[in-house]
Amino acid sequence: MIEVTRFDGSTFYLNVDLVETVEATPDTVILLSNGHRYVVREQMRVVVDRIRTAKDARFRGAFDGS
């Protein structure tokens, strides 16, 4: 899960396993595999970095038991 921010300032956690695309339109639009679409304040690069960090942490945990 990663935390992202709606344009009204509220935050929510996004299941990174459902992310299909992240696009800059120039707003950052996240499309999930279930068809839901979210527009968030974070820049596309920030969202992608958070997804990568979350997946890396999960991958490392699978091997070191953390």
Overview of this structure, please?
The chain has 66 residues and is an alpha+beta fold. It has 1 helix and 5 strands. The protein has one helix at 44-64; strands at residues 2-5, 11-14, 19-24, 28-32, 37-40. A 3-stranded antiparallel β-sheet has the order 3-4-5, covered by helices on one side. The chain has a two-stranded antiparallel sheet with strand order 1-2. The protein starts with a strand and ends with a helix.
Please state how the strands of the largest beta sheet are arranged side by side. Answer: 3-4-5
Task: Tell me the number of strands.
Answer: 5
Poorly predicted segments: none
Q: How far apart lie the N and C ends? A: 16 Å
Mean pLDDT: 94
Helix and strand composition category: alpha+beta
Order of helices and strands: EEEEEH
Helices, by number, come to 1
Please summarize the sheet with the most strands. Answer: 3 strands, antiparallel
Radius of gyration: 13 Å
**Relative helix content:** 25-40%
Q: How big a fraction of the residues is strand?
A: 25-35%
Shape: elongated
List the helices and strands and how they pair.
Elements: E1 2-5, E2 11-14, E3 19-24, E4 28-32, E5 37-40, H1 44-64
Antiparallel strand pairs: 1-2, 3-4, 4-5
